[in-house]
Write a structure and sequence with these properties.
about 150 residues, alpha/beta, Rossmann fold, four-stranded parallel sheet, 5 helices, 4 strands, globular, binds FE2/S2 (inorganic) cluster
Length: about 150
Amino acid sequence: MTSTGFEPKIAAFVCNWCTYTGADLAGTSRIQMATNVRIIRLPCTGRIDPLFIIKAFERGADGVIVSGCHPADCHYTAGNYHARRRFTLFNDFIEFLGIDSRRITFSWVSASEGQKWADIVNDTTARVRELGPFSGYRDLVRSGLTGGQDAGT
Ligand code: FES
């Protein structure tokens, strides 16, 4: 925790087959990692719509992780290739949307890479902690400009 008491909330969108299992392995192996991450499990990174990321920030996340199977390991053959293309374009768009791109981590983590998952969690948490809270969208929601129902704040 920082001297200001800020602890970031990180939303992690992960595929069921590789990263979720890798995260589970990190837990069962009792690897120490930050407890700031909340995992949202999806069938495949090909299912992760970039709007999920924007919505996460709108709903109170300070950072986001997107992770799935390594290239050539997707259980649906090409979902991660679609995701890679989608997020390459999205990455160019993030700053335009008012989000510092350092708040988002894209990665591949296999079912056997528990330590890699823990490293990503710790690195992302430390980086976002350094950046401070993300309040831009919450201010917009409060002012009613996004049409959002509730920012949970
Ligand atoms: Fe893991 Fe497609 S099943 S990325």
